[in-house]
């Protein structure tokens, strides 16, 4: 296992980048701890795979360094980094059996056949393919082949890091849950440093100890699922994490109050005067309809999501969402909305502003 350091890292696919907009990966410096389970989360084109390929050695960055346990591997080939990587689409040797595919990384490093057999059996059980070990891979389905790719990535215990690039794209939903559970168990048992690229927040939040949220080539927040939900450091994090995402509403903030179209409510904390694009962010779970308290709102429709209801509403010309309990009654006289002051975040130019007195 290895601590991974990204030192002043940035990358452009252009030969002569002139400005920040020419960089697919904006400048970043981060330490990812030895034995950590990280998920790189963001929408398509945000730079996730570019960053993963730089860490794996498939791509040399335009600037900066990659270090494993303090050792500079920026220009080291993939084979010298002692990593395992699983790609979005399955890569298997069709002419080999399932057993030989799983055994290949171990045999390639000269492990004795007794150990190889034991480890292959263990991994086959993990991916649910014990009864297919003798089959040639050429006739297997895409999801079966991807399970083999996952198994081959996990078969070695001595790797510096396991890298997964959207590995469950071709896996059926039920098997996705099982394999994520197995990956978590593998991490718990062996403590590998794992980096898992995905655009699916459920995959990221259920797999990772720390989620690395990327937007427009930049890491906008690294945190636990709770931190991303409770305190999004960027409006994109609030929007992308949660279903529905955080309500982001233009406002004027003055001291302990937020003003929206002349109406105001208390923030529960004090803020210094600020310029630029100022917004408040409130998750739907922390908004409540009322008959008399709060600011005016117009309910457009109510959607029953089973365990809760999602209220779609107009709030001073802005679409907002409100989450209500499954048994909560929504009447026509509920024309006001209240926000829980303890869960309102303030943003300037999309970045969260800490209230006065908040610990760093």
TrEMBL record:
InterPro entries assigned: AAA+_ATPase, ABC_transporter-like_ATP-bd, ABC_transpr_FbpC, ABC_transpr_MalK/UgpC-like, Mo/tungstate-bd_C_term_dom, NA-bd_OB-fold, P-loop_NTPase
Keywords: ATP-binding, Cell membrane, Membrane, Nucleotide-binding, Transport
ABC transporter domain ranges (all copies): 4-241
Domain of life: Bacteria
Coiled-coil region list: none
SUPFAM superfamilies registered for this protein in UniProt: MOP-like (SSF50331), P-loop containing nucleoside triphosphate hydrolases (SSF52540)
GO terms of molecular function: ABC-type ferric iron transporter activity; ATP binding; ATP hydrolysis activity
GO cellular component: ATP-binding cassette (ABC) transporter complex, substrate-binding subunit-containing
Any Pfam family matching the protein: ABC_tran
Sequence similarity: Belongs to the ABC transporter superfamily.
Descriptive protein name: Carbohydrate ABC transporter ATP-binding protein, CUT1 family (TC 3.A.1.1.-)
PANTHER family listed in its UniProt record: ABC TRANSPORTER ATP-BINDING PROTEIN, MALTODEXTRIN IMPORT ATP-BINDING PROTEIN MSMX
């Amino acid at each position: 296992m290895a601590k991974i350091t990204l030192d002043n890292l940035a990358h452009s696919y252009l030969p002569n980048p002139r400005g920040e907009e020419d960089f697919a990966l904006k400048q970043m410096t981060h330490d990812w701890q030895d034995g950590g389970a990280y998920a790189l989360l963001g929408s398509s084109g945000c730079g996730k795979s570019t960053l993963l390929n730089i860490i794996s050695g498939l791509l040399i960055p335009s600037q900066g360094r990659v270090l494993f346990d303090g050792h500079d591997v920026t220009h080291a080939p993939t084979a010298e980094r002692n990593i395992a990587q699983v790609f979005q689409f399955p890569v298997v040797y069709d002419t080999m059996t399932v057993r030989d595919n799983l055994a290949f990384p171990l045999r390639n490093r000269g492990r004795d056949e007794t150990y190889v057999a034991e480890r292959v059996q263990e991994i086959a059980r993990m991916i649910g393919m014990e009864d297919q070990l003798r089959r040639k891979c050429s006739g297997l389905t895409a999801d079966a082949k991807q399970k083999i790719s996952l198994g081959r990535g996990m078969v070695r215990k001595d790797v510096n890091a396991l890298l997964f690039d959207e590995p469950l794209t071709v896996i059926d939903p039920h098997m996705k849950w099982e394999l994520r559970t197995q990956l978590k168990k593998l991490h718990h048992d062996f403590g590998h440093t794992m980096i898992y690229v995905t655009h699916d927040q459920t995959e990221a939040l259920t797999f990772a100890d720390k989620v690395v949220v990327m937007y427009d080539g930049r890491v906008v927040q690294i945190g636990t699922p709770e931190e991303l939900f409770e305190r999004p450091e960027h409006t994109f994090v609030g929007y992308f994490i949660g279903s529905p995402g955080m309500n982001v509403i233009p406002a004027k903030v003055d001291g302990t109050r937020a003003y929206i179209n002349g109406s105001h409510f208390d923030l529960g904390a004090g803020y210094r005067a600020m310029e630029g694009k100022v917004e408040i962010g409130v998750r739907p779970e922390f908004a409540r309809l009322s008959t008399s308290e709060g600011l005016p709102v117009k309910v457009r429709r109510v959607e029953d999501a089973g365990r809760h209801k999602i209220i779609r509403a107009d709030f001073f010309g802005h679409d907002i969402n409100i989450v209500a309990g499954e048994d909560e009654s929504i009447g026509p006289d509920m024309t006001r909305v209240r926000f829980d002051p303890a869960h309102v975040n303030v943003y300037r130019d999309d970045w969260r502003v800490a209230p006065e007195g908040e610990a760093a």
